[in-house]
Amino acid sequence: MIKLIYQVGWFLFVSLCLLGCGGGGGSGSSPGSNTEAPPKVSSAAVSSTESSSSSQSSFSSSMLSSSSSRSQNVYINTSKQFKLVSDPYLLLSFEDPGSWSASTGTLYKSTDVFQGISSLGIKNFQTTTLTSKPLNTLRAIGDLVSFGVKLNQSQSGSIKLLVSIPSLSLFDKQIGTTELEKLHVGAFEKIVFDIPDDVKTALNNEYNDLVFKFEISSTKPIDEVLLDDISFEASVISTSDKVEIEIRSADDFVYLTVNDVQKKMWSDFGNSSTGKIDISSMFWRGANSVKIYATNSGGAAKFWVALWVNGEQVLLRDCVTESCGVYVDEGIYYQTSLVLNTPGRPVARLLELDGAEKSNIYIDDHFSGKQIPTSFFIPQVNMTLGIGEYTDAPLNYKSRYVEEKILAGASNVKFDASKAPALGVQNVNKVAVVSIRKTIVSDTPRQGILRDSELALFNKNMQMVSDIWVEPLSYGLTKWQVDVIPTIENVALEMPTLGSGFDGSEFLTKAKLDYIKSQYQIIVFHYPGYDINGVRLDNGGGAGAWAMNGYFYVSDLWSFADDRPNSVILHEILHIYEQYQVLRNFTPTGTIGLHGAECHGYPEANLQGETDWVGWYREFIRGTVKENENIKQGIEITKPVENPEIYVGVFETFRRGLGFLH
Q1: How far apart are CA 178 and CA 197, in angstroms?
Q2: CA angle, residues 343, 292, 230, in degrees to nearest 5
């Protein structure tokens, strides 16, 4: 549950240090017990994100909750959750021979097509049964089913189309049959069957085991048959199918992905309904895979989502608090997949990509899960293609980002990223370093004094973090302009205890520095934790670093080297990017957010030599963190999941820019 309380101040937040898996804490040369890295606490140990409101903290999306009212819609059972079992477009359009098997004969991919890029060929048989892989729930099917068939010689026999849904006790139900001798030779012919009423009734249920079969038999051996383009049509085909979605609750986030190419997401920050949104442009002619996920950041969860095709409701999911649960685990708590048929949309086109081997592919600022070289189908719509090239050598990262606008149109697209210029730095985030000479802590008569040597090392580290990590890990899209404000000599920092924190905005007012709040997205407070004799003021128990609302607080209890950056700086300032992405871009950052390294299978040190969680921060910045329904708070895994459903992180903010939170 997300609560918009971030504006009230740091003292209302619950630290992620108290939660979950614990990965991604501050590191490098740390101040002993004063690390920001969280202890190992199971999710059962935390009853509410509001129960520890006195704790200072770093930002997390789990600190927020929706203020929307409870859904009044009738609860529809959400226990039927189906993962996508096969790509419906590749299967039904015969673009992937691997989606089909044959009892006899040889299957192959042919470029002789009825529609699309390829068809399915079957050669050297007399009688065979072609069986598809299973498909998910099929919606908006209409009254007719058709396919293309081509013979290279006259034959006598038949071709039958059958359907099975074992979970609904439907087995090898014949939809139609046609005689081979009636087909023309040497050209594709479209075969159309009426869908029997009992099959339509079955198809309008929910399932993930829909199987199609073609039974082909002849009185003599067949050299070759080509099949292409299974399509479902209404008696009167729409010239432009309209697909709409409405979200009435999204606590915390609802994801929609179509054909694993385009993604949209919604979060309910007090908005009762989105109204119907036209998402037709995300769809292409024929079968489209649709996936819907609901994710939670802690606390209660609920969602309401519906889909329409040409005004007919094809999906309704309503999960109110009573049915979803008062406290739902962080991460994906609901998912389903279905196939929407839109015969009136423009045909898909092929996108072929080449370039450097280590290159991540982004569509409209979201990681697609694909890497170069590859090819895949896209709809006829404007989209922004991003290619992130990288060489990840610790402390010597090299990267660049290429962007290409793909315009709507029917033509296939080829793009070689290696021949395109780098986009270069798009965001220069201004960082002000405010160093405070003196700390006064109520629980000790001693005062903290910030030494000049520590000032110099810290300021150098700030620039190293930008140069060595921030810029290359973001493909060169973001860097920091680090400005050092003259050391505050005449205003002491006062705290009850060193670990109790302080209000950065109030201190800036006392120091007559209010003006920098409108000039710098990130303001760093560097303050002393040692007295003039080098003795700690906190006796080993104070907080060393935290960040939120555009402010980063760090004491000299952290030591900073002259020749390498300290990842505590990267970690804490990433909390600011994380907070901005959730609260300003309304985009989630995954289970446990920045502290979810071990939940997602990322160790503190990896085999390629990255230490101090930097390998995790790299993936988090690039938005390539893999997540599925098994990623849960308090459960550590040894490596990233191999079957992700979504990708999370803060790439959108690094690509489009960090604004102001204070």
Answers
A1: 19
A2: 25
